[in-house]
Amino acid sequence: MHLKRWITGLVVLPFLIFIIIKGGVLFSAFIGLLALMGFWEYTRVVFSDNRETARSLIVLVGYLSIPAIMWAAHFHVVGLMFHIITLYFIVTALLSVLLYKKNRLVYEISKKTVLGVVYIPVLFSYLVLIRDGEQMEGAYWMFLTLAIVFAGDIGALYAGTFFGKHKLNPAVSPKKTIEGSLGGIAVNIIIGICIKLLLLPELSWGISFLFFISLGIMGQMGDLFESGLKRVAGIKDSGGIFPGHGGILDRADATLFAAPVAYLFKVYLF
Question: Cα(210)–Cα(104) distance, rounded to whole angstroms?
C-alpha cells in the first residue's frame, strides 16, 4: 500500500508543479475539474444507500454551482462568490418546497447537497484565490501550503505506524493515533521552515510558526471529517482514481480544510 502511494505521488507531482507554476486559467480550470470530480465522489458517499438520489434535480443544481463559484474565484471577486452561494441556497430551498409532495426525502437530499457545495467547490476555490492569477508569489504560497499539508499527512502516517499507541478518535477513524497526529504536526513545522526559507524568506517567523501549526491542525481535521463521512456510509475510499490513495477527496481532504486558513494568513496576517 505504501509503495503504491509513493509511486502515485511521484507520477502526479511533476504535473501538479507544472499546473501551479502556469497558474491563470489553466490552474483555475484544473481546480474546477477536481471540484466536479470531488463533488461526484461526495454524492456517491452520502447517497450510498440510494445511488438514484445522486442524480436528482437538486444535486444537478449543485453541480451547476461549481463553474460559477470557480469563475468568481478565478477573477478574485470574493463577494460574488458568496452571492452565488446564497443564490444557490435559495434555488435549492425553492426546489425542496416544490418537490416535497413527490419525494418526502427531498429536504434530506437538500441538506446533504448544500453541505457538499460548501465542502467541495467552496473550499477548493480557496486554492484558486491563493494562487491568484499568474503572479509567482501565488505559486510560492501554493507550494508552501501543499508541501506543509502533504508532508504532514506522510509524517502522521509513519509516526502512527511506528509509534502509534493511543487512539486519536476511534469512533471516526480507528487507525489514527495521538502519536501520529503529533508526528504530523512536527513534520508540518519542519517542512514549513524549509519551504519558507527557500521561497518566502520575508515572512515573519512568529506568524509563520502559527501558520505551520494551524495548517497542520486543520489538515488533520479535514482528514477526520472525510473519514467520518465514509464511516457513516460504510465505505473505505471515496473513489479509486489514485492507486494507494483512493479518490479525489481521500487525497484532498486535508487540503480542503487547510486552504481557507492559508488564504486568511496570506491576505490578513502576513
Answer: 47
